[in-house]
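## retry 2 of 3
previous attempt timed out at serialization; input unchanged, resubmitting
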Amino acid sequence: MRCAAGVIVDDDGRVFIQRRSATRKLFPDTWDIVGGHLEPGESFEEALYREVTEETGWRVSIVLGTIGELRYRGNDGLERLETDFLIRVDGDLARPRLEPGKHTGFRWITPAELGVFDEQRDMDGGLLRQIVEGGFALLRQIGL
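## retry succeeded, writing output
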């Protein structure tokens, strides 16, 4: 399965994360970034733009760079190939429109708050922390 995900950064250098609902099959009740599976015929970027709008109501304004690509096996047993992007979005950043039934909360974090992902290390093997750390590193590298 191919996936695209975005590490959304705001003007203060914080990253948006959202809490997956406890009823989700893949990584239930964990912190996550915006993203999902590619639909037939979609590119990674097309999927990214669609997923951002579906999950938050925001629109991608700029792709700042590619954080990386990784393979992982979810707790559902399926292997995925995910490309992660560092992005900015347009919209009311204080009021995302979370996808009903899929996400239950959100927050903006700084590099000092990466420990929020440690509570889910047993479930995701540190995957989300690694991706968001990569986003913060790319942000520093491009000087924003």
